[in-house]
Amino acid sequence: MKVITSIKVQLKPNKNQMTKLFQYANTARFAYNWAMSREQEYCISGGKFISDNDLRKEFTQLKKQKDHHWLNEVSNNVTKQSIKDACNTYKRFFKGQCKYPKFKSKRKSTPSFYQDNIKIKFTETHVKVEGFSSSKKLNKQKLNWIRLAEKDRIPIDCKYTNPRITYDGLHWWISVGIEKEDSTRIPLNEGIGIDLGIKNLAICSNENNYENINKKLTVKKSEKRKRMLQRSIARKYEKNKKKGNYCKTRNIIKSEEEFLKINHRLMNIRQNHLHQTTSKIVKREPSFICIEDLNVNGMMKNRHLSKAVQQQLFYEFRRQLEYKCNWNNIPLIIAERFFPSSKLCSCCGNIKKMLYNPLHNIYKLIRICTDSLVRNLRLWRVLELVSSI
Question: Is residue 254 part of a domain?
Fold first, then answer.
């Protein structure tokens, strides 16, 4: 049995390649929005759904028009896949798997596009993108080859699935799926139970604790710098406000780029810590791993703990454990939210419904004492008022 694993590598394009990448991403967004609008028009007129095959034929006729002749400058596979993605979102909506699909905004959506999995080629240091230059001259053919940031990261001469190129606001990335043989080894070590928290990220039953990375000095300094930049950018926007509209200056663009760098750095630190933690747990080869089903939405409602909960990335921790356990044939058990783990006896399995808490009586006495003090104070004030009259 084969498993598809995805690899994501940063690209290092030159200026000409950068313009081409943005051109491809904008064309993919246009094709997606065009397909969405055609689907909406057809639904309003009384139809049910247009297949992606019919939309592709209609899009080829659109390319022949003079107003849309610029679409021919981009590879045909990019627009085809964008139309297919738009149709897939509608199919998922009709099945009840997602919300009503929206148009891709130029300002808010992440620029991305698809590459043909057969025509894409990788070397140790470069990747060949389809259609950047159709010239046969060697000097112009160099435009198709984009340099990779990491050497020998993606294997050569193998089957690739769903290659996508995306832009995160700072760098261009390529992600591709590669088939690998599934491991048949079954681990037989003692099982591990994991308790997630804020003080520590994870406390395991085998007496291994994994610290909270957000308490490190480097993360705290970066968070402080991030807050300072947010305030300075807001002040600059208010200062350059003209006739009710915000004006973006060159200094604001520089500050926003620096803010993006710090934000990406913080996210990378947290993601790296989660990957290291989950890999350490899985490498111990336990017979099973048990985690709790946390109510993260409910925890986020607490204004004192919401930021700390958000920074811990509990869902990402669970997602990484799920696929890493699947790769290593380790069953992942998710305990129910209201499972009485603290009231359950580890020996006989008896559940003690009225669990005795020795501190409960002390809390009760303190509450009674404070209530009586408040009452006495109120009576004293009333007596003072009566005596003064």
Answer: yes
